[in-house]
Amino acid sequence: MKVPRRRLLLVTLALATLALATLAATPLTAVGGGDDGQDRHGVRGGGTSLVAGGTGAPSYVPVMTKFAFNWAGGTGRFECLALAPSAAAGTAGSGNFDTNAMYVTGTITSAEIKGNTAILKGTSVVTGIGAGANRAFTLTVTPGGPGATLVLVVSGMTFNEIVIDGEIAF
Questions:
Q1: Rg (CA), the chain
Q2: Distance between CA atoms of 99 and 144, rounded to whole angstroms?
Q3: Burial profile 144-160: b = 16 or more Cβ within 10 angstroms, e = fewer
Q4: pTM of the full structure
Q5: How does pLDDT run across 52-108, given as a tens digit for each residue?
Q6: Which of 135, 147, 146, 143 is nearest to 80 (CA)?
Q7: For the residues of 81-105, what is the DSSP string, one character each?
Q8: Exposure string for 113-130, b = 16+ CB within 10 A, e = fewer
Q9: Which of 38, 101, 107, 167 counts the most CB atoms within 10 A of its CB?
Q10: Is 30 in a helix, a strand, or coil?
Q11: What gap in Å lies between CA 40 and CA 89, rounded to an integer?
């Protein structure tokens, strides 16, 4: 089968254009190869978690958090709202997480990925427990949906959390 030269030239030109467009759309960080520990693709997550052990001894009041974070292109944000029930355990309403115990809002200034863990650091404003401005925080996360983990260290406190709804990805 003989293909006209003009048609062959047009098909070749179209394929070359497609290849160049694909190459141009590929992020440069994705072609670097290797793992130098620095974030190459972004870290993001959002959902609901439970703080392991709640408030701790002696009362063990449960604490639920609503969290969201995103790191990409050298910049990021972190939000975490901790809620506790206003009613005592065993009473009506004790399963309603309706009291704002703590709120952390901040800027992520660095991210590092080490295997199956991402470590995000930044500064925040904290209200409620541990309140203050310019509070350094470290958020260590593992990827996945329910069962993934977060460890937030802020205002001298450490919160070990387990995701019950949502997802963390990197």
A1: 23
A2: 28
A3: eeeebbbbbebbeeebe
A4: 0.76
A5: 999 999 999 999 999 999 999 999 999 999 999 999 999 999 999 999 999 999 999
A6: 135
A7: EEEEESSPTTSTTTT-EEEEEEEEE
A8: beeeebbbbbebebeebe
A9: 101
A10: helix
A11: 45
